[in-house]
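Model: Ready when you are.
Researcher: Fold this.
Model:
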Amino acid sequence: MKINEKNLAAFATSSTPVDRDGFLLKRGETNKGYQKRWFVLKGNLLFYFEKKTDREPVGIIILEGCTIELSDDEENFGFKVVFHGPGNRSYYLAAESQESMEGWMKVLSCASYDFMKLMVAELQKQLDDIDECASSNNFPNAPPRQRHNPFNRKEDATPQGAAMTVSLAHQRSQNLRSSYRPEDLFRQRSSTFNELHVTYGKLILDLCPIQPATKEPDLLVDV
């Protein structure tokens, strides 16, 4: 694979987002001693500089086809980037604390393109499962709630009954108007209070006949 060093150097120090940066100890390939380096992680590219203020990295690790494992150097909180296969190199690194080591190992393990593909595939599978579950569970609609007015008469329960009631009331009113005339009530000025009471009482009973008591349906209360 050909790598354009100038483009990589420009990318390492550009204003693109940084996933993690900080100082780590790195063991040399020839010199087995540890040297302090400034590391910058951008995507699946791990740059390391001799100093934090340097403009060009001294090396780069492409985090593809590798695993992040603990090393035998427990005293220095060591871990390693292992490239599997014959002739491949492993990079030995060390952090300054247990917390820093765990943070670096976690972010490096998630940096590869293969890991991102697995995550996207898993998320897509979860979305498909949710869509399938939502489409298969056709919950029946709840029946509409009905509230009965206990003051309504049975004959008014339907639109047809209500129309019939209005028609009967109108006909009864017309009949009463033809049989009772106001001038007839006061034609005899000598009518006593008792006679007026009986006359008006009969008129009221004809207009509003007393209905026999019937048991009304219970009021349904929403809980």
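Researcher: Now this one.
Model:
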Amino acid sequence: MGDTFRAREISLKAQKKLLSKISNKSMAKNFIDDTHANILDNMYNLAKAYTGNKKEAEKIVKNIIKIIVKIDFLSRNKLFSEADLKVADQLKDKFTTIVKTVISFFEVDFTFDKNFLTKNVNDCRAILKDLVGNHLSDKTLGRIDHVLDFFTDSAFLEEMFKTDSQHRPLLQSIIGDMSKAFDEGRI
């Protein structure tokens, strides 16, 4: 029994390996619609403007894309167990809360609560890692941390939600696309 050849397992491993090598913006277009692509493009612009570091901004967005592509791969290939699907529902609920919160903080001056947002993003991180922890590598879990560490950085959050922030126009574009995707039921 232990030496049984399993073509499906080998195929899935090969697909995962291939995905890890080709996850980039052009590949993402197969998994991400135009609105979400705009969000990612503007996140790149925002990260680049905030950090002043093009490579770091590229790394953040590439990591987001890799995470999305891999989760989509797991979902499409029905690799999530029933327990995983319950965790996925929790993740969706938590992510929806974060999106609504970010939109509200942006649209209503002086409502920004860094601790509330950070706690929710960190809760989302834990749920996401719980969902994919048994399916993806430690390297991918590190990508999750890299992305979410950036978006929970105190100085970053405070700068983004200042009413006079130089980054407000970029954030406004991101919020507009997030609102659109949310209204259309795609978040």
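Researcher: Key takeaway?
Model: The longest helix spans residues 82-107.
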